[in-house]
Amino acid sequence: MADRVVLAYSGGLDTSVGIGWLKDATGKDVVALAVDVGQGGEDMDAIRQRALDCGAVESVVVDAKDEFADDYLVPALKANALYQKRYPLVSALSRPLIAKHLALTAKQLGADSVAHGCTGKGNDQVRFEAAVAAIAPDLTSVAPVRDLALTRDKAIVYANEHNLPIEQSKKSPYSVDQNVWGRAVETGFLEDPWNAPIEDLYSYTQDPTVPRDADEVTITFEQGVPVAIDGQRFSVLRIVQELNALAGKHGVGRIDVVEDRLVGIKSREVYEAPAAIALIAAHEELESLTLERDVNRYKRGIESEWADLVYDGLWFGGLKRSLDAFIDHTQQHVSGDIRLQLHGGRATVTGRKSEQSLYDFDLATYDTGDTFDQSLSKGFIELWSLPSKISARRDAAN
């Protein structure tokens, strides 16, 4: 049915108005697709019904929370993925999953196009369309806000004229995107990077300056994947949810950053990602215990490249898939337990153990009985510094 377009539907003003706007502009019937990635808030059944009430010929809701955790958050955790060393790719990780279901739904329905509610100024337009192009290159992507001049004031007028069942009066001063991995807040007074965040904009985390007793938690990993909290096994999704609550109580994972968008502008963003920051801290520490020095060093550069690729919308690209293969190979011995103390906005590692550990007490100890042969060090240093010595002599002669 090439006379249909599948719209990534959030239930908000822009995508709700976008249903009729797309129909009017393209002449195609609109299928609304809502993907649950753990964003919370409204009931997904209510969102499904709203899409129908706004004129969608069909409304599809996909519960992708476990898929998101297992297939998108786990690779990000194995990669210790932080864009510009700060941002745990909250929105960037959900977009390829949503785009995947957009493309699959369009193919199943025989539609020839998909749509999303992104503007022309952000990263998400690239992430959606690059992912769709990689999965279903024959599909056309349409963006009502960007391509069809659907501005917010026009959206409000359209909604009123057509009696659409959406609230326009309760306008948040911020633009918010969230999923189970974290929450992103922008616009409003945050657009001035001198303005400090206020407590009202946070939802996943509590004020870390409020006095409260510290909590300790032990996270168990198997080949880089978190499998248990304090000895109790859970799904990855459940572990993330539990740590969001536990680390969020202590204000862990608040991030205030000016980041470089893919489209060439700088943007001030405030994030809160308690589980993501706690898990990355634990995972990195376990790697320090179980990976060889050269592997750990080399992997740090790979992690930065991986985060850049995902931020830039190339989740399904060839280089990212190749980096996944390298990262997966490094995780074969990343199994063990990490103890974290959660307190005052920080997740601090206080203990680590692993049957795959490369830490040898007998080599490391400075007490009598250590097995390290210190007599070998003198010759090692002579050879190690030989190139420096030779070049220094040359420099001194010139």
Automatic annotation (TrEMBL):
The keyword Amino-acid biosynthesis applies. InterPro entries: Arginosuc_syn_C (IPR048268), Arginosuc_syn_N (IPR048267), Arginosuc_synth (IPR001518), Arginosuc_synth_CS (IPR018223), Arginosuc_synth_type_1_subfam (IPR023434), AS_cat/multimer_dom_body (IPR024074), Rossmann-like_a/b/a_fold (IPR014729). Pathway: Amino-acid biosynthesis; L-arginine biosynthesis; L-arginine from L-ornithine and carbamoyl phosphate: step 2/3. It is an enzyme of class 6 (ligase). ATP binds at A8, Y9, S10, G11, G12, L13, D14, T15, S16, G117. Keywords: Amino-acid biosynthesis, Arginine biosynthesis, ATP-binding, Cytoplasm, Ligase, Nucleotide-binding. Signal peptide: none annotated. Its main location: cytoplasm. One of its GO terms (biological process) is argininosuccinate metabolic process. One of its GO terms (cellular component) is cytoplasm. One of its GO terms (molecular function) is argininosuccinate synthase activity. L-citrulline binds at Y87, N123, R127, S175, E259, Y271. Coiled coil: none annotated. Its EC number is 6.3.4.5. Residues 4-165 form the Arginosuccinate synthase-like N-terminal domain. It is found in: Cytoplasm. L-aspartate binds at T119, N123, D124. Belongs to the argininosuccinate synthase family. Type 1 subfamily. This is Argininosuccinate synthase.
